[in-house]
Write a structure and sequence with these properties.
The protein is α/β, with parallel strands linked by helices. Helix content is 45%, strand content 15%. α11 links the parallel β7 and β8. The relative contact order is 0.12. Bound molecules: ligand G3I.
Length: 346
């Protein structure tokens, strides 16, 4: 073979191999198999049961599920003496059959509350009973099935004060601590998390949360981990802030859950998006996030959960009324560059 022919052959092989590498990013192999920690998704139960494509993708790609709404107080506790477990039970069964870790979200929140709680007229003792019964009935019911609970969600304001809520108003500032105690009494094997947004970029809020939880722990109350929701965007926060938060929180030996990850590509609600370019930036940021998470000690890596997986089902476009594509899959369940980049990085 002539020398020039050999060079041409090498070049052809080089470029076709590179091309093959790109083409080989498909989702035939599960994403979770790439990771040494759990990779989860929030699941919208109506879609899970209504769409085969949705369910197949969820079942195949993730090994930890959080119900997006079905374990919230308004879903599970629709009336004073009535708990509604049928839908959540069927999901728990699907998790057990599919070998998925089930993460319970959430026992207490200022939002997703049934009206009857907001309107409840009771004295101090009755409020305490209601609070305890709410937590313990739910946690006992799912004992052995829910691996971990977000016991309290979003209880702090940005300035580090406690957020106004019915629980704060009726039970006082110790309600968070009480909630963890009651949850632990109901299922001593469940891991118990505090979950919030903004902890990754707001040191004031982070310090307040840490000092409340550390204080509880110093008095023997079990709190296993902290969930950082991480609804982030291409423009904010900076990865260095996220790194700093992860290091600071893990230094206190909490398990760390990146609990509701999505990456908005259009936080300023612009038109004529250059999706190809933005998807690439989204993939790069997701990779940095994963690398930051991988720095944590293995036994503190509870896992990374995405808040959904297909752009068509994300809460962001509806909630903010804008075009956005914050998740791993397109609306028709094709893996995006972010998915492909995670395959390389996890
Ligand atoms: O199911 C009803 C449906 O029957 C009705 O027709 C429709 C009309 O509005 O509402 C449907 O319920 C909506 C539900 O999502 C299911 O789509 C609720 O109105 C809506 O408030 C609810 O929003 C959820 C929100 O939490 C409030 O609970 C979002 O899906 C969910 O993604 C969002 O998740 C929160 C986390 O729990 C905590 N962190 C922030 C995160 C994003 O806001």
């Amino acid at each position: 073979m002539k020398h020039t022919h050999l060079i041409v052959l090498i070049c052809v092989c080089f470029f076709s191999c590179k091309k093959n590498k790109t083409v080989s990013c498909n989702d035939a192999n599960p994403l979770h198999e790439e990771a040494e920690f759990k990779i989860g998704a929030a699941i919208d139960l109506s879609s899970y049961y209504a769409s085969i494509a949705y369910r197949n993708t969820a079942d195949r790609q993730f090994n930890s599920f959080t119900a997006e709404n079905a374990f919230k107080p308004n879903a599970l506790h629709p009336d004073l003496n009535h708990f509604e477990f049928a839908l959540a039970d069927s999901f728990s069964l699907a998790c057990a059959r599919g070998d998925k870790r089930l993460h319970g979200h959430t026992l207490l929140w200022h939002s997703a509350l049934p009206n009857w709680i907001l309107n409840y007229q009771g004295n101090e003792k009755e409020w305490q009973n209601l609070f305890k019964q709410h937590i313990q009935t739910i946690v006992s019911h799912f004992k052995g099935r829910v691996k971990a609970w977000d016991v309290v969600n979003e209880a702090f304001n940005e300035d580090g004060t406690l957020r106004k809520s019915i629980w704060l108003e009726k039970l006082g500032t110790a309600y968070i601590e009480k909630a963890f105690e009651y949850a632990h009494e109901a299922d001593a094997d469940a891991l118990l998390f505090y979950n919030d947004y903004g902890l990754e970029f707001n040191p004031e809020k982070r310090v307040a949360v840490l000092s409340y939880l550390n204080n509880m722990r110093s008095r023997g109350v079990q709190v296993d981990g902290i969930g950082l929701q991480l609804h982030i965007s291409l423009s904010y926060p900076d990865i260095s802030q996220i790194n700093e938060a992860l290091q600071e929180i893990s230094a206190y030996h909490y398990q760390v859950h990146l609990s509701e990850v999505d990456i908005s590509i259009n936080p300023l609600n612009q038109t004529n998006l250059n999706k190809e370019k933005l998807f690439e930036q989204q993939a790069q940021l997701a990779a940095k996030l994963v690398l930051a998470y991988k720095q944590l000690p293995n036994d503190q890596q509870y896992g990374i959960t995405f808040w959904g997986f297909s752009d068509a089902y994300s809460w962001i476009p509806t909630y903010y009324g804008r075009e956005d594509y914050p998740l791993l899959y397109t609306g028709d369940f094709q893996p995006k560059p972010m998915y492909c980049k995670l395959k390389e990085t996890l």
